[in-house]
Amino acid sequence: MSSSSARERYEVVVIGGGPAGLSAALNLARARRRVLLVDGNRPRHAATLMAHGFLTRDGIPPLELRRLGREEVAAYENASVVFAQVGSVTVEADGFAVTGRGVRGGADVDVLTDAVVVATGVAEAMPAIPSLRAYYGTQLHSCVECDGYEKAGEPLALIGETSDLAERALLLTQWTDDLIVFTNGVAPVAEDEERALARLGVRVERRPIDDVEGEKGVMTGIRLVDGTVVPRAGGFLRPVWTPSLSFAASLDLEADAEGYLVTDRHGRTSLPGVYAAGETTAPGPQQLVVAAGSGAVVAAAVNRDLIGLALDETAVL
């Protein structure tokens, strides 16, 4: 470990190079802050071919959106971007120490900073179905608001094992009248929920799933453990999301029952100097455009706090 005097110092380190982190870094760079953006380059949406609902960028590949964002941030002489997986963030006498190991040829990180923005999003765990990921990002998706339009009118599956499956199914009826909910023998869909879905023509299939079937990379159906094949052209998954925060364990940040960081409406966490943006905070996974907006809000709060301005919590930034 380097001594404090030998470490490079930044005013803000942004951890996470998705839309929330990129937006925060860009706005802080424009506020003339010395910013380091650390991107672990393991985006949750790596398999997604197109992102939707982002004004002026509807249909852009998410990886291209990230690339363009990194270039915009790095164009500012007071901002730097590095590919590294952050290992720890610790409190020092004169700020925070951020360390990490370089990835994709990026340099290792060992720096000091006055403020930290956590924008690392979530990790997702899928139902244990062998071929699921072969169709994820093409025929199967996780964000209804993002990809429902492209699936309109198709015979769809909704696959999940969580208690909110019926709610997601009701939302999907906006786009299709041919929907089957697959609980994989796990999801607790109540009888009253099943009746409400049935009134809309939605069937609940409670038998466990064996696998997803397809031909030449195109999904054709869901095969159940008893051998029954239910034809489906695509659909949506309900993964289990978990905030990616292991590097911040020593900070003892306040979190809710699901592990999301608790913040005020400007993104301040329970530890002064540490902020959170995007999917790291409740209510969980959001559209890319919403995450980018969150990053801008947090950047404004960070800049004001570094100046020493006390924000009136009754005001709107």
UniProtKB/TrEMBL annotation:
It catalyses: [thioredoxin]-dithiol + NADP(+) = [thioredoxin]-disulfide + NADPH + H(+). Keywords: Flavoprotein, Oxidoreductase. InterPro entries: FAD/NAD-bd_sf, FAD/NAD-binding_dom, Ferredoxin-NADP_redctase_2. It holds the Pfam family Pyr_redox_2. It comes from the Bacteria. The keyword RNA-binding does not apply. Residues 10-295 form the FAD/NAD(P)-binding domain. This is NAD(P)/FAD-dependent oxidoreductase. It comes from Leifsonia williamsii.
